[in-house]
Amino acid sequence: MVRLKIYSLLSVALLISSGPLIAANIPAIAKEFPEVNSTHVGLLTTIPSLFIIIGVLIANHLELWIGKKKTILIGLGLVFVSGVFPVLKHDIFSLLFLSRCFFGLGIGLFNRLVIQMISDIFQDDPRKKATVIGLESAFEGLGGICLTILVGQLLKINWYTSFLIYTLALPIFIGFFFFVPDDKKKQSGKRKSEPNKTVSDNPDNIVSYRLVISYGILLFVIVTIFINYNIQVTPLLLEKQIGNATIGSNNLAFIGLGALIAGFLFGRIFDLLKNYMMPVALLLMGSSMFITAISESILLTTCCSMVIGFSFRCIMPFLLHTFTQQSEKIGNLGTTMVLVAYNIGATLAPYEGIVFSKLLHIHTVQSLFLASSFVIFLISITIVLGVVFTNKAKSNI
């Protein structure tokens, strides 16, 4: 019964990365609506990210009124209805666009709370919690891979039939409703027993808040670079004349495979590296990006793509696990900051090349990758120095 509860909770993560999966539909949708600007059609893949941020912020307040479980169920319901809507009504672009907005809102309502519920269940077992948070990341990657394959098959029928992938939200809703216990009474009782605290009550809270904000800024930069790698790896292969669009697509698949492996191994890696996990992951990511930039081998580039996916998926669960180890306020702020930074970074990632080209006078994808790898190296060194300084300060107490 415990396993059924955990897997019902983890199954929600299968939908978290499903927003951009309809990107392959964009050319067909643009052809269906020739009067609509192509930029607006392209927004169908990115607009959910903006509404995920709104959903995360709404969930922070909604969970206080109705509890985490009911908030997640509302989010799953929104994802199901708005996700499948284009299958039923696909001749009015404004309604299609609106359905994508509500879809993002639904994802945002449960995105953070899944992590928070895992933290609540395994509050007294940090090692098990790290393992399950890693599995959450793995389920997210697994959902992305499986649903991408399904979208490709459904596209053979029609562009709007590919939205049927979101019917997956219905069995997930049912499983979550029946097998995950209600948390409202437990949470409200817990809150009543805790005195009202402010940041000034504990000087350590000030440091924690600064740390959360600092990590949020760093994560924003890391996400923009990672997402831009996904966007630019195919143009890089074409620029260097060592591959084509199919090989670029294979690289994206291996990024997903690396992310999936990282999710399943996260608990063990965390036990081994502890606080050095993030800088080590960044060193791997920066090194792989640098090698990709100078490589003339398709095999080596593909391997580097897998390592980059692996490294990135070590960073996200590490931050989520680290923040959920703190007080409830810091935990909520930290997980919210991670998800907001991720979605803003993902939305603004295409502009990274424009910023770099203007600041550093970069005009090739290869130069962009080299510059990005050096930025990752700098972030890694900064975090290593921070960890060493923190460890020395603790040892002197």
CATH homologous superfamily title of the largest domain: MFS general substrate transporter like domains
Total helices: the number is 15
- Helix % is over 70%
Radius of gyration: 21 Å
User: Which residue ranges are poorly predicted, with pLDDT under 50 across at least 5 consecutive positions?
Assistant: 185-201
Structural class: mainly alpha
Number of strands: 0
Look up the CATH topology of the largest domain: Growth Hormone, Chain: A
* Overall outline: globular
Strand count, sense and barrel status of the largest sheet are: none
Cα-to-Cα separation, first versus last residue: 45 Å
Q: What sequence of helices (H) and strands (E) makes up the elements?
A: HHHHHHHHHHHHHHH
- Name the beta content range: under 5%
What does this structure look like?
There is one protein chain. The chain is mostly helical and 397 residues long. The chain folds into two domains: 2-190, MFS general substrate transporter like domains (Growth Hormone, Chain: A, Up-down Bundle); 200-396, Growth Hormone, Chain: A, CATH 1.20.1250.20. The protein has helices at 2-11, 26-32, 38-66, 68-88, 93-121, 126-154, 169-179, 184-193, 203-239, 245-273, 277-294, 298-324, 328-348, 352-360, 365-396. Helix 4 packs antiparallel against helix 5 (93-121), helix 6 (126-154) runs antiparallel to helix 10 and helix 10 (245-273) crosses helix 12 (298-324). The radius of gyration is 21 Å and the shape is globular. The protein starts with a helix and ends with a helix. Mean pLDDT is 87; it is low at 185-201.
How are the elements arranged and paired?
Blueprint: H1 2-11, H2 26-32, H3 38-66, H4 68-88, H5 93-121, H6 126-154, H7 169-179, H8 184-193, H9 203-239, H10 245-273, H11 277-294, H12 298-324, H13 328-348, H14 352-360, H15 365-396
Helix pairs in contact: 1-7, 3-4, 3-5, 3-13, 4-5, 4-7, 5-6, 5-13, 6-10, 6-12, 9-10, 9-12, 9-13, 9-15, 10-12, 11-12, 11-15, 12-13
